[in-house]
Write a structure and sequence with these properties.
By secondary structure, this protein is an all-beta fold. It is built from no helices and 28 strands. It is globular, with a radius of gyration of 19 Å.
């Protein structure tokens, strides 16, 4: 990845285009999935998803109703319109041309020919109580490294699906085999507990410096979402003791994740960070809370200083949310491996909860 900065350009959108929901036309009865992280691998692009619904949709009815009741954690594995709900799934996208949507993809399947869960639960993680959700990753040599969140489901709250974060872990597998093992550090598969930033929400390899920067978000007591960054040598990505955390501008790095400082405020724990050659600087893309506003920020260095949020796209919901709940729009991120003309044209996905497919937009920068 070329990171030499020459002339920096301001971030502004000249033209935008809605390419619609993706992966709808599939042979596996996949009727919705969120997350939609991606990163380049030898086979093209590895796409990693969160909760994936297998079954059918009922025209004119919310996807989240089972027998006219809001679906709970125990309803998604065989009741009503749902046949199964793997917590995390993946596909390989072999065609990097995105101007007409994402085509030529293959889901990772189990021996039964069905979409399989990529990171399996442990024996003590009951499917009604725990989920393993996707974060970002990268390929290093012959191995793929993916980060994930362990989630504890709760019955009541302000949203149709309510949960608390247990923490983040890492899993690794061999390219071509696509079988992933959860890594244990300090006696646990949870590397950073819920009290820390959830590092791995975006992974930025800077290969010429043998470093990876990992971005994560922590929710403060006042409800604000604060992004932070860690770094580690690429050859030490699987060693938790080797990680350092930005503790002050300068930059100053600490071995203690509790000393992590805030880079910027507002993103959910899903975002992207990449170097954009056209802009001549780093580009972060994220949803602004659940508002439907997708924003970008730029920085001369992976650790900042990051610019204020610049609007890139406003989502206009196409479906009516469940009565009594907000219309949740989340998970916006760029897929840098799909960009064209050196980053002048970029591709971003987001999730509208009622639509519940990765929704793709094309942004042409000024």
């Amino acid at each position: 990845m070329q990171t030499e900065i020459t002339a920096r350009k301001p971030l502004a959108v000249r033209r935008s285009r809605d390419l619609g929901p993706q992966f709808v036309d599939n042979p596996h009865r996949m009727v919705g999935q969120d997350g939609a992280y991606s990163f380049p691998v030898d086979a093209g692009s590895f796409w990693f998803f969160g909760d994936t619904l297998i079954g059918r949709r009922v025209e004119g009815q919310s996807l989240w109703l089972v027998d006219n009741q809001i679906a709970g954690p125990g309803d998604l594995g065989g009741r009503g319109t749902f046949e199964a709900m793997p917590n995390n799934t993946a596909l390989l996208l072999s065609c990097m041309e995105a101007r007409d949507g994402l085509k030529d993809f293959q889901y990772l399947l189990g021996p039964d020919g069905r979409i399989r869960q990529v990171i399996e639960r442990l024996p003590d993680e009951h499917p009604d109580h725990y989920r393993i959700w996707c974060l970002h990753g990268c390929q290093l040599g012959s191995r793929v490294h993916i980060f994930y969140q362990k989630i504890h489901m709760v019955k009541e709250g302000p949203f149709p699906v309510n949960f608390e974060v247990v923490g983040v872990g890492q899993a690794t597998g061999r390219v071509g085999e696509w079988r992933f093992e959860r890594l244990v550090q300090r006696g646990s598969t949870v590397w950073w507990g819920g009290e820390f930033p959830q590092f791995g929400a975006a992974v930025l390899p800077v290969r010429e410096k043998n470093l990876a920067y990992l971005y994560g978000v922590r929710k403060a007591a006042d409800g604000t979402q604060n992004a932070s960054v860690a770094r580690v040598r690429l050859d030490a990505l699987t060693d938790l003791a080797a990680y350092e955390y930005l503790a002050a501008a300068g930059p100053t790095w600490s071995r203690d994740p509790a000393e992590s400082v805030t880079l910027f405020v507002g993103p959910p724990n899903e975002l992207s960070v990449s170097f954009n050659p056209y802009l001549g600087q780093y580009l972060a893309v994220h949803s602004m809370n659940l508002s439907g506003l997708i924003v970008g920020r730029t920085s001369p260095d992976p650790w900042g200083p990051w610019s204020d949020a610049i609007p890139l796209w406003r989502v206009h919901p196409t479906r009516t949310p469940l009565t009594g709940f907000p219309n949740m729009i989340y998970a916006a991120k760029e897929h840098a491996e799909l960009s064209r003309e050196g980053g002048r044209i970029v591709y971003v996905t987001f999730i509208e909860f009622e639509e519940y497919y990765p929704h793709l937009i094309e942004l042409e920068l000024e």
